[in-house]
Amino acid sequence: MPESFVRQLIAAGALPAEVTRLGPRAVRRVRLLHTWTAAGLSLQPILALVDRGALSLAFLDAPVMATPERLDRSYQQLAAERGIPVSFVQALHQSLGFAPPQPDDRAGEDDRTLLEVAETFRGAGGQDEATLRLLAVYADSLRRIAKAEADYYETNIEQRLRATGLDERRLIEFGTRFGDRIIGPLERAIFMIYRRHREHIWTEHAINHVEEALQGSGLEERVPRPPRRSASST
What we know:
Blueprint: H1 3-11, H2 24-38, H3 43-52, E1 70-74, H4 75-82, H5 86-95, E2 106-108, H6 109-123, H7 128-163, H8 168-217
Helix pairs in contact: 5-7
């Protein structure tokens, strides 16, 4: 986050002048405002709407908006601990569709998890470039899921509520409460769907091993086609 923007928020009264370190909620507020201003919105009118109660930032406190905990070390230090170049950590972020961090930025708990995945693949002989491509597929698929969720909510729920006369503050507050209720079941459903598809794919993959073993033993030729997917696995 640019220091100049933080100073701009302090000057505008959006942050206390004596602030030395931003807490998680303040960080989310600063990031949101920076994103909005980068999109061309003016800072002062936004702050005025919030002060008047015409616009709510309550959704920043929703569990879904919580960001991973920051570690007590930089990306450079985390990379050194793992014995990998910091350039790989930056490439990892880029493969997920995010801006690469600076070496001196504080790393997050999620960075440690991602590196654990990459190192496990590397330990099994996987190439880093292939791992980055795989993670890019994950990221693109999940981005499309998140975008579809937002489109669904806006088209099927938010537009109807706006038509009843709800203003933007109440729409945001409703969306925050609704998100608190739906995000848990949604994440469980996504994981369930993934696991069921993964089970089917890896079952098909295992057929290759059986075929190779049978062919190598001379007991049987390759099966002509994989078994049909049962209704319970769709």
